[in-house]
Structure formats: structure tokens, C-alpha cells
Write a structure and sequence with these properties.
Mean pLDDT: 93
Low-confidence stretches: none
Number of helices: 3
Number of strands: 0
Largest sheet: none
Helix content: over 70%
Oligomer: single chain
């Protein structure tokens, strides 16, 4: 059997991406965003299966607090 391939470094990957056309770079970015979203969805499903959930009321309270925080930062 062959030897295991070494994982490329971030720098090596960025050099390869830099060689792509702007359209191809956009496609890579979109795929990365999709994969990130899939990971987050999996994490949410796993948390839900463990029972790590909050009520709708609690979620709304947290979102309202976060929104107020963002608005306050924008005033500065």
C-alpha cells in the first residue's frame, strides 16, 4: 500500500486558490459556506438529540438582547 498523503497547509491551499479564476474562487467560497452551514446544522441536530434545547421564549429573549447589543455598538 502507498504511504498516507500529507495534509496540505493553509498556505499551500491559498496558493492553489489564488491560481483559480475569480469565478472559480467564488465557487470555492460558496462551497466552503455550504459545508460550514452543514456542520452547524449537524451540531444543532446533535444538540437537539441530546436534549440541549431552549424554549422559543428564551430564544427570543436572547435574540432581542443580541440585537440591542449590536445596535448599541453601532451608535459608538
Amino acid at each position: 500500500m502507498g504511504q498516507p498523503q500529507e495534509k496540505p497547509t493553509v498556505e499551500q491551499v491559498l496558493k492553489l486558490v489564488d491560481q483559480l479564476s475569480p469565478q472559480e474562487q467564488g465557487e470555492v467560497l460558496e462551497q466552503l459556506k455550504i459545508e460550514d452551514l452543514r456542520r452547524e446544522i449537524r451540531k444543532g441536530i446533535e444538540a437537539s438529540e441530546r436534549g440541549d434545547v431552549v424554549s422559543l421564549e428564551e430564544l427570543n429573549r436572547r435574540l432581542d438582547a443580541k440585537h440591542a447589543e449590536i445596535l448599541e455598538r453601532q451608535k459608538k
